Amino acid sequence: xxxxxxxxxxxxxxxxxxxxxxxxxxxxxxxxxxxxxxxxxxxxxxxxxxxxxxxxxxxxxxxxxxxxxxxxxxxxxxxxxxxxxxxxxxxxxxxxxxxxxxxxxxxxxxxxxxxxxxxxxxxxxxxxxxxxxxxxxxxxxxxxxxxxxxxxxxxxxxxxxxxxxxxxxxxxxxxxxxxxxxxxxxxxxxxxxxxxxxxxxxxxxxxxxxxxxxxxxxxxxxxxxxxxxxxxxxxxxxxxxxxxxxxxxxxxxxxxxxxxxxxxxxxxxxxxxx
Length: 274
Prior knowledge:
The chain is mainly alpha-helical. About 55% of the residues lie in helices and about 0% in strands.
């Protein structure tokens, strides 16, 4: 009997995640949820920060900034725009409990991105991020396009924002657009694609081509499952192949396990479990 391929195993893993209360965020919302202006501001900043650091710290950082800075009588984005650039830089680099909101990679870039975002937010969206995703179902891709037009928010982050808004908040038609989005080719997903043999490379272009050829019924579901596999099992160093949900069909995983078994036998000891 042939074993299932890695694509099917990833999709099967998503079904298990759906039933797991610890992964509530992978489920599709059955209702349209609304943002307050404060939550919308925190969400937007969280998207900008979600690079080079844990997702948890990025989203917490968005909430922390909105709660603690640029709190004048003005709209949040008007306050950012009215603040001297040196003060913005100081807040971004030291205002998160004496640490930087952004990762080391974005340490000097984030203050510039935030200031530029304030101009764009005020000029194009009336100082309200909710207007970015205020689109009809047939224009769901406009969410991706609008996020990507901001400095510091690239392809992967724009797709992530679109996924969260449509899947978790039921925006732009919610689940009816399940098949009308694209997987975000971030580092974790690309690693899983390459190691499992779905893609011939872990480079962005090759990964996108491989994903397009899959014709996935729900890219967001595949993305969530692959991302979790990349984060929790398919680690860059010391991957946990022995417990990975797609081990049966993963080229890298089978080689890794075989190498571990051979090494254990050569030492006359049972295979160690990481």
